[in-house]
Write a structure and sequence with these properties.
The chain has 289 residues and is α/β, with parallel strands linked by helices. The protein is built from ten helices and seven strands. Helix 7 packs antiparallel against helix 8, helix 7 packs antiparallel against helix 10 and helix 8 runs antiparallel to helix 9.
């Protein structure tokens, strides 16, 4: 499928001229509707979009997204694929039908999903999405995709000083990737907005119930619930740097999809142990921020 990116605007930076380093410095122009139900992913994506210079509104599911898109003008929709009430696939289909009935110009819709298989990409394009972003994504990856559809209007030349996000209490961190904290610090130079603390708190508050559902799904041999819960936990765990936990959850998601519950049991036990380690390290991290 050929992508038809937005044209360069007067005064914009030529995309072809951007070096690998300058992707970290560009600014974009436009108003984006972020459709995402996970509170951790919401905060991460909103911070990245704001750092890129974009105005952002949030919808938590497809029905809310359709209502907002009909009411207000957006330059782009960043659409999560798996959400309650109405998922991104159905919402995109309905919006494309609405555009056709009203004779409206095509609004770029970018899929964001934790599933990175080729079949998932094709499904996104089949329902009318224009581009694809695999979770978790970095600011650079987000900028590279959005720059195909939005004007690149500025480039900051001045260096940005960020705090030492690797500084921690004396206990060594083993379950959290400190590089992720450094990336978060780049979105909040000086820590004025307390972004790291907010994201860690959101993770703690939103995942406790889900982990309980994970255990119940195993106890009740509910493969579909296991798949759904593991999928939901997977991307938010990666976004706080819990990469080992995220990998275990990805394995659980796959086993749940295949109804291989006997194989899933020891993986689930390891995931819950790793989750407890992550929560303990998050407590230390929030104290140190």
């Amino acid at each position: 499928i050929a992508l038809q990116a937005a044209p360069d605007f007067e005064g914009s930076v030529t995309r072809d001229a951007l070096t690998d380093t300058s992707w970290q410095q560009i600014s974009l122009q436009g108003q984006v509707l972020l459709v995402e139900d996970n509170p951790v992913n919401q905060r991460m994506a909103r911070a990245m979009l704001g750092n890129l210079g974009l105005a952002v509104e949030i919808a938590e599911h497809g029905e809310e997204a359709l209502a907002l898109a009909a009411e207000k003008r957006f330059d782009l929709i960043l659409m999560d694929c798996n959400m309650p009430r109405m998922d991104g696939y159905r919402a995109t289909q309905q919006w494309r039908e609405h555009e056709a009935r009203q004779g409206m110009p095509r609004l770029p819709i970018i899929a964001q999903t934790a599933n990175a298989m080729e079949s998932d990409r094709q499904r996104c394009f089949a329902v009318g999405m224009d581009d694809y972003l695999a979770k978790p994504f970095s600011r650079k990856q987000l900028a590279q995709v959005l720059a195909r559809w939005l004007p690149v209007v500025a480039k900051r030349e001045e260096p940005v000083t960020v705090p030492d996000a690797t500084a921690t209490p004396t206990q060594a961190f083993q379950s959290l990737d400190r590089k992720v904290f450094a990336q978060l610090a780049e979105l909040d130079p000086g820590g004025e907005s307390g972004l790291i603390r907010q994201i860690l708190q959101a993770y703690q508050e939103s995942t406790t119930t889900l982990v309980g559902q994970l255990s119940r799904a195993m106890a009740e041999s509910d493969a579909e619930t296991l798949r759904k819960v593991a999928h939901s936990l997977k991307s938010s765990s990666a976004n706080v740097g819990a990469v080992r936990l995220s990998a275990l959850l990805a394995e659980l998601e796959s086993l749940g999809r295949q109804n291989r519950l006997e194989e899933a049991l020891p993986i689930c036990e390891r995931a819950i142990t790793e989750y407890n380690n992550v929560m303990a390290e998050i407590d230390l991290s929030r104290i140190s921020q």
